[in-house]
Amino acid sequence: MVENRPAATVLAHLTLVLGVLIIGFPVYLTFIASTQTAEQIVQNVPMSLLPGNNIVESYRLALFGGQTAYGSNLPPAAPMLWVSLVSALVIAIGKIIISLLSAFAVVYFRFPGRNLVFWMIFVTLMLPVEVRILPTYKVVSDLGMLNTYAGLTVPLIASATATFLFRQFFLTVPDELVEAARIDGAGPMRFFKDVLVPLSSTSIAALFVIQFIYGWNQYLWPLLMTTSEDMYPVVMGIKRMISGGDAATEWNAVMATAMLAMIPPALVVILMQRWFVKGLVDSEK
Amino acid sequence: MGAISLRNVEKTYAPGSKAAVKVIHGVNAEIGDGEFIVIVGPSGCGKSTLLRMVAGLEEITGGEIAIGGRVVNRLEPSERDIAMVFQNYALYPHMSVFDNMAYGLKIAKVPPEQIKARVDKAAKILELSALLERKPRQLSGGQRQRVAMGRAIVREPSVFLFDEPLSNLDAKLRAQTRLEIQKLHRSLSITSLFVTHDQVEAMTLAQRMMVMNAGRMEQFGTPEEVYQRPQTTFVAGFIGSPPMNLLRGQADGQRFVVAGQTLALPQAAPRSGELILGLRPEHAEWGVDSAEAWRLQVDVVETLGAERLVYCRLGETLFTVRIDGTLPAPRPGEQVPLGVRADRLHWFDAASGQRIA
Fold it and tell me: What is the least distance, in Å, from the CA of B180 to any CA of chain A?
């Protein structure tokens, strides 16, 4: 039913504009703060809502670190962004590969204890990182993986959610397709590579976005298992830049780092959005 | 190359367990190279299961299947030298028409130029040449069906297996595709097994047809044989539309007593005991009166144009007669004599349903 009532249209737009403002204003504030100098932010109460002229200096300081106006030393954010990027990519891609393969095994192979395995995977949904953090730390530490990329990513790679999602998708693939592939002489892995993975491409894209952001936003786990500065992800880095106690905080650099940390996930969402839409339009499987 | 032998083929689901269900009971058949065989039967009779056993998609739990003299019980589908056309076509949705047809050859590591030649040739036969770059979702039902056939043809198998390939097409396209399949078979002469529940498809396509019921092969013969000499009451009732009239009663050579009615029998019908008498609706002689004529009471008349179907009562039993459309329509309630020729009657044993004469 399509209605054409101006009042409803205005109301709808009003709601949406309000929503955008609520989400957008803090981001705007962060950006404005990153263009001013530390003194401007602290001295003007409330803070000016117009862009300052310190943008180049703020971002240079945030990215490459260095001596601040107050004389303290700021660590550079560029290596932290790199650590975050690598671990988010490894987590997202690793999760997708592992869950594709395990869903494939659970759906297409008959092996003893198949149901048990499936339920075991399912039960791990109840065990997020926070719950198993101490045993996981012990394992990672015993394996000597503290302060490594492996330590940052491997414990987060297994994913029941993604396995479950792919399983549901594989169950909708018609059996006749499997049989046609068998008659064509495709073995299980060939069928997986040539038919199942291409058919799952839209689910893979969706999961990649979700898992990339999940990986990027990890805070607690890196906080626990990294002790050397060159392995800090950027989310942790931001927290460390906010100094407590008497020391002054370089708010412009903090805000610039926050802006920088927002860019990769936003890019992933914006770029992958086209895939979502494509997947929704070409609904035929 | 493509002769098929079915020797006492059996299929049991969950064998050895309490839930074991036997769905194919000892089917025997010898199919010659190049023959077009139609397997026909009602749904659930095991016809698709039998075809899938030949394809290698269902395990054979008893007996032997040989293709081209080679027992294939333990072979993978791809090693059996067969190609199959599925009911829903089972095209790979993400591949172009060309890739769909070429996929099997690519896996078999056929050189690319040869793949291209074979696909082009098949596409030409099936008039798909202009569609090779399209994806299956951009094709109509009939075109998808042709791609599925093309995928089978490029493999150059010794046996084609068709699993109800026409059932998703509309009536007009189905008739047209039926003719195309017939032409294709004439030009390629490859042994074909064609499963259908549609008796028109069975009668028109088959060189020989296998009528199945409840996992058993009821009759295996040419369409003429199956129509003119059905071996069991099941075949008699299944093939022919409207189905053959089957009357259960007592015969003593002169008369046949059915449901309290006494019917005069032609002299050449020396039968006795409890029997089932079969007479096709189109084989009764409408309005031909004689001492031996049966008397029917007209119940309902359906006019189809070229012919009329007259549903009558013979005592308590329903009896269908098919008459020419140019004859005047009988009125409901009217009494009509029906002439019966001895050579048109079919006799079956009442207990086993097997044909006697």
Answer: 23
For residues B159 and A9, what is the distance between their CA atoms, to the nearest angstrom? Answer: 64
Angle, helices B171-188/B141-154, rounded to nearest 10 degrees: 20
Strand partners, B65: B6
Residue A5 C-alpha, separation from nearest chain B C-alpha, in angstroms:
38
B80/B93 Cα distance (integer angstroms): 25
Helix (H) or strand (E) segment spanning residue B335: strand B335-339
Instruction: State the pairing for strand pair B4-13/B21-31.
Output: antiparallel
Does residue A198 sit at the B interface (CB-CB below 8 Å)? Answer: yes
B298 within 8 A of B332, measured Cβ to Cβ:
yes
Q: What is the per-residue pLDDT across A246-266, written as a single tens digit (0 to 9) for each?
A: 667 788 888 999 999 999 999
Q: Is B69 left (phi over 0), alpha (psi -120 to 50) or beta?
A: left
The dihedral built from the CA positions of residue B288, B292, B298 and B304, taken in this order, carries a sign that is negative
* List of long-range contacts for A39-48, beta carbons under 8 Å, 24+ apart: A39/A69, A41/A251, A41/A252, A42/A248, A42/A251
Residue of A nearest to B101 (CA): A184
Contact assignment for A185 to B78 by CB distance below 8 Å? yes
Interface test with B, best of A110, A177, A183, A196 (most B CBs within 10 A): A183
Q: Are B205 and B178 in contact (CB under 8 A)?
A: yes
Q: How many CA atoms lie within 13 A of B137 on its CB side?
A: 8
| B138–chain A Cβ distance below 8 A for any pair | no
Structure tokens at A249: 């905080």
| Integer Cα distance of B90 and A131 in angstroms | 45
Q: Is the pLDDT of residue A284 over 50?
A: no
Kindly determine whether residue A177 and residue B87, on different chains, have CB atoms separated by under 8 Å. Answer: no
The bridge status of strand B36-40 relative to strand B208-213 is parallel
pLDDT tens-digit readout, A7-63: 889 999 999 999 999 999 999 999 999 998 888 888 887 888 888 888 888 898 888
- Tell me, what's the ipTM? 0.82
Residues paired with residue B256 on neighbouring β-strands, in sequence order: B251, B263
Q: In chain A, what residues touch B87 (CB-CB under 8 Å)?
A: 176
CB–CB of A184 and B76 under 8 A? no
**DSSP string over A170-217:** HHHS-HHHHHHHHHTT--HHHHIIIIIHHHTHHHHHHHHHHHHHHHHT
Residue pair B40/B212 in contact by the 8 Å Cβ criterion? yes
Q: Does A117 touch chain B (CB under 8 A)?
A: no
Per DSSP, the three-state class of B226 is helix
All residues of chain B having their beta carbon less than 8 Å from the beta carbon of residue A174 are: 88, 90
Return the residue in B54, B106, B160 with the most chain A beta carbons within 10 A, the one to mutate for interface testing: B106
Q: Which residue of B has its CA nearest to A187?
A: B107
Residue with tokens 């990649």: A208
